[in-house]
Design a protein that fits this description.
globular; 206 residues; single chain
């Protein structure tokens, strides 16, 4: 039931944003569909081999919706071409920065769960968290590279300037570090329990 609801939610926003973009003549929707499609395929393959908790799957899908909304919807703010450029807390936090922070944190959670399957008791919580954070940062860097390439193809890509890229990387890092600290801190009481060996500690999001 959870899987069918998740699939329905994901397909609904993908088709909705696609229909809206086609109606507006927005060509950059192609890039967004490519990214979301590839990531959905990867998550599906990973989940089949190493099941991820429903909360992580939902979080990943919601991040996809936030990403498409940010790049394809108009901003209510004057002078801002897309929703990504909308200030949530002016001049402290833009919608773009919030999405980068949240997505990076969610990717860390997903990688943490995956590493739990792959590494098992061989990795301490700190090592597992650090690897998950590095994987998330690599994902964020790859996204910035894809945005740069998209801007070479689509004149209306609105990926921003070098300063925007820099802030994207900063908020990616903050999101990854926040998730890392939370996971390692949550795993610490389990690792220190006298009834559970430290190498078997595991934070589960299920």
């Amino acid at each position: 039931m959870t899987r069918s609801r998740l699939a329905t939610f994901t397909w609904a926003y993908v088709l909705g944003f696609t229909a809206y973009s086609v109606g507006q003549g927005t060509r950059r929707v192609v890039a967004y569909l490519l990214v979301v499609g590839i990531l959905a395929f990867v998550v599906r393959r990973v989940h089949r081999a190493h099941p991820l908790p429903p909360v992580v799957l939902w979080a990943l899908s919601i991040c996809g919706a936030l990403h498409m909304a940010g790049g394809l919807l108009p901003s209510p703010s004057a002078g801002a071409p897309i929703f990504y450029e909308t200030w949530l807390i002016e001049p402290v936090l833009k919608y773009d920065q919030f999405v980068h922070f949240a997505t990076s944190a969610v990717v860390v959670l997903a990688c943490w769960e995956l590493l739990g399957h792959l590494l098992g008791p061989r990795a301490t919580p700190l090592a597992r968290g650090l690897i998950a954070a590095l994987m998330a940062l690599g994902f964020g860097a790859g996204n910035e590279a894809f945005e740069f390439l998209s801007a070479q193809r689509f004149a209306d890509a609105f990926v921003g300037n070098l300063q925007n890229t820099g802030w994207d990387l900063v908020f990616n890092t903050c999101g990854a570090l926040t998730a890392l600290v939370w996971l390692v801190t949550a795993a610490a009481p389990v690792a220190s329990s006298p009834s559970i060996p430290a190498h078997e500690s595991r934070v589960s999001l299920a």
